[in-house]
Amino acid sequence: MDEAPATIEPALQDHCCAAAGPTAGTSPAPALRAERTALIGRAFRLEYATLGWMAIEATVAIVAGLRARSVALGAFGIDSVIEIASALVLIWRLNVELRRGEAFGEQAERLAGRLAGGLLFALAASVVIMAAFRLAARAGASFSWPGLAVTLAAMPVMYLLARRKIAVADALGSRAMRADAMESITCFYLSLVVVIGLAVQAVTGAWWVDAATSLGVVWFLVREGREAWTGTCCC
After folding, report:
1. Are the C-beta atoms of 134 and 210 separated by less than 8 Å?
2. Is the pTM of this model over 0.85?
3. What's the pLDDT score for residue 17?
């Protein structure tokens, strides 16, 4: 796969909603269609890789979260399930374009963007509800070694997936794939939040750390969900 931007954040700001198009010296239309088909093939591989990793991540995080009564780990597991749904939406959208052409792909793009935005809103709401419940009950969480292991492993995996998804999304001009990349970035940040929360909890034993740290990515989820839903770019 082609090399993507060096960091996540600059990639979020560059070419937010740029659609792939001809430039000076490009080949005729058949070559451009072949190039776009190759990009779609890259997108498929990224989404299948996402499905495989997320199946592992969701299983470990949800089981560990239930055993430790951890809101942050539970939110992390739910995020993984939502990423699976988002990847399936993207695979459907890409299949539509391959079977019926780019015009039909653009129609599927709008629906896929709405679905991806709705999934991000759902994750934000679930995090807030679970955190509020735990804070109201003054209920802490137990330390979880499996939870720590899966969140540590998730950070480099999500970082690499997000970089490559952003590069392909910009080349295709796909808001839906960008929203899917945002969910990968959210998973990266959420895993970082969970790791920090687990570390602070292990050192201090404070009961509220788990619920409080789980709220750290809600603003990001809402912002990206709104942009995916409305089709506006983040430039």
Report:
1. yes
2. no
3. 45
